[in-house]
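We close this part of the discussion by returning to an individual protein. Part of our work consisted of pairing the sequence of a single chain with a tokenised description of its backbone. No coordinates are needed to read the tokens, only the vocabulary itself. The amino acid sequence and the backbone structure tokens for this protein are reproduced below:
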Amino acid sequence: MKEKKVVFKRYVQNQPTLLLPSLDELVPERHPVRVVNEVLERIDIGALERSYNGGGASSYHPRMLLKVLVYAYLKNIYSSRKIEQALCENVHFMWLAGGAKPDHNTISDFRSKRLKEHLKKVFNHVVVRGPCHKAADDRILQRSPNLIRHRQKIKQLLESDEGLEKRRQRWKVEAVFGNIKQNKGFRRFMLRGLEKVTTEIGLIAIAHNLQRFSLNPAI
């Protein structure tokens, strides 16, 4: 029996190309990095921009640094040195930063110093919420579109035999914190001090919300 010839696909590392692909072509349409870019591009960061002093050398744009930090937290990258490395090696980070390559000191200073007074406003812009509804006593409530359905499902689970058994064992599952600690590997803060820790938990919360939105745009 004649032996079949093995055929390999052509492999040439240094082959020149007439038209190089743009970074935008390498990022899929519904990729989470596009969600981060789209959401953070629309929010008002005027107060953050005004916190910079004039004069001296030019600064990296705070919107770019904010996008990079949020996307890094979404991708479970928390070290400023690893973020710096990703900006040089990862296509998605390179696209998001527009080719800018701030070093780890710039990233760390922005996270620990610049953001601490402005992240709360940023967070309020990207919290996943449903439409506002006014209560009888004029209180404003935030209501998720799926809230009633989820509550009914939870009630059924709690009243089931398995649910009653788990309640007797006093098991309590915190889904968000479980996701952040287990799936995202966020088990310790990179910063120290109450204000800086508050900034970092804000970043991880924003990343959590945007990751949910990228997986389910209907939220």
